[in-house]
Amino acid sequence: MKKLILVLLFLPLISFGQKIKGKKLFSIKAGVGEWQSSVGEYLNLKTIYAPYTKGVFDGIAKGKVLPIGGDYPLYYQENGKTFSDLDIDMVLLTEDNEKIYCKASGVFNYVTETFESLKFQTHWRFRTSSEKYKYLNDVMGIGFGSVLSADSEYNFQHDIYDVHLK
After folding, report:
1. Which of 58, 63, 70, 105 could tie 51 with a disulfide, CB 3.0–4.6 Å?
2. Which CATH code is given to the segment(s) 19-165?
3. Domain boundaries, the chain
């Protein structure tokens, strides 16, 4: 009887579970210029401005990150860790001269002293007037970030996926 109850409980999960389908859109490497600290404080959260100065990307297209925009995170520090809510604006210029505006929000938590990433996840939206890439206007991308090594010419990498249910 116990086995029958367990089977009945888990059968809907097995039979009717939704499957996730995903496709990698971009890998973006971005370099940050001189960031401005203490831009402001809001609800006991501090803000900074970290401008993007350069970058490259590949995936569904290749190109460079224009030196426009940056990140305006809200953050606080506690017990040697920094907890940030990201607010990213970025413009990509493809090799075929198309512009794609990117807006992302997310979470970047790290060890304050070492910059070791604890959590780095983002949600991306795109806007373009390009006929070739206009489908991106309807995409909500999921990103996973990483901090690049000190000897890299870039600071961060964002791997962005178009994830949806099948």
Report:
1. 70
2. 2.40.160.20
3. 19-165
